[in-house]
Amino acid sequence: MPLDRSWAIAVALAVACDAPPPASSGDLIADRSLPPPQSEAPPSTSIASATAAPSASPPEPPEEPFAVLDVPDHEDAIVSVAKKGARRPLVVATHGNYDRPEWQCEVFRTIVSDSAFVLCPRGIQRPDSPSHDDVRFTYANNRKLEAEIDAARKAFEARYGDRLAPGPAIYAGFSLGAIMGVAILGRTKKGVYDRAVFVEGGYDRIDAKTARALADAGIVKVLIACGQAACLHSSKAKVSVLDKVGISTKAVGVKNAGHAYDGEVATAVREAWSWLVSP
């Protein structure tokens, strides 16, 4: 059963709270219109300190919404950083073939805003990238992606662990990331993940056997999102397969957005997010 977690659904990006400006030292100086004291004695230390302007530390600069995370033995990952304050849960978002983790994190930030951290593993460079300035990435296989995710999560916890909410993470995958995610989640020990999002992929790998493996691994909810008619048609047939093993499932999306995870597809995921994260 899922842990009870409070997921704050927000639509705004991270905004640092501005500290009120320090009082001007001129506001703290004695009224010069009064006659000077008759005594020749110097003012006491306590009076002098009372009229001095307090020292004020400059406000902390706003935290960047995205961060590069060094991952030992792997390419760096991207993190969508949740606003400081309450502890936030984690979404692991994997991209598709010929894709970039920056794009995946940017889109998922529009979906979850500050309600969660989003960790986007990079994978390996494709040799047929458009240019040196436009490098694309893929994942070699699901075993190597699983190892990269494990390493990225350890690096993430070392850096943001004091801001991470306890409990399972959500696995989100697009296309290749979704396909590999079905295999990864099916062999992951219970308690690591409890919910999954499969966007334009992965649903076609679900049968009675894989559904049972997902349930045994602790998955309790699955959201399938589509941008094409064929995906919507096929994914709706998978809802009953997952429901039979106790996994609550919903299929959302549109028919003519194409093989994509942004735009109307992202909107459909965002609108279903409260359902996904609710107990």
Comma- or semicolon-separated keywords:
279 residues; alpha/beta; Rossmann fold; 8-stranded mixed β-sheet; 10 strands; 16% strand; disordered N terminus
How does this structure look, described?
It is a single chain. Helix 3 crosses helix 4 and helix 4 packs across helix 5. This protein has 279 residues and is of the alpha/beta class. It has an eight-stranded mixed sheet, with helices on both faces. Strands 5-6 form a two-stranded antiparallel sheet. Strand 7, helix 4 and strand 8 form a beta-alpha-beta unit. The N terminus is likely disordered. The N and C termini lie close together (9 Å). The chain has a single domain, classed as Alpha/Beta hydrolase fold, catalytic domain (Rossmann fold), CATH 3.40.50.1820.
Ordered list of secondary-structure elements with their pairings:
Elements: H1 45-50, E1 66-69, E2 77-80, E3 90-94, H2 101-112, E4 117-120, E5 124-125, E6 137-138, H3 142-160, E7 169-174, H4 176-187, E8 193-199, H5 208-216, E9 221-226, H6 229-243, E10 248-253, H7 263-277
What's the mean pLDDT score? 85
Q: What structural category arises from helix and sheet content?
A: alpha/beta
**Assembly type of the shown chains?**
single chain
Percent helix, as a range, is 25-40%
The number of helical runs is 7
Profile the largest sheet: 8 strands, mixed
Give me the side-by-side strand order of the main sheet: 1-2-4-3-7-8-9-10
Strand content: 15-25%
User: What is the number of independent domains?
Assistant: 1
Within CATH, the superfamily carries the name: Alpha/Beta hydrolase fold, catalytic domain
Distance between the amino and carboxyl termini: 9 Å
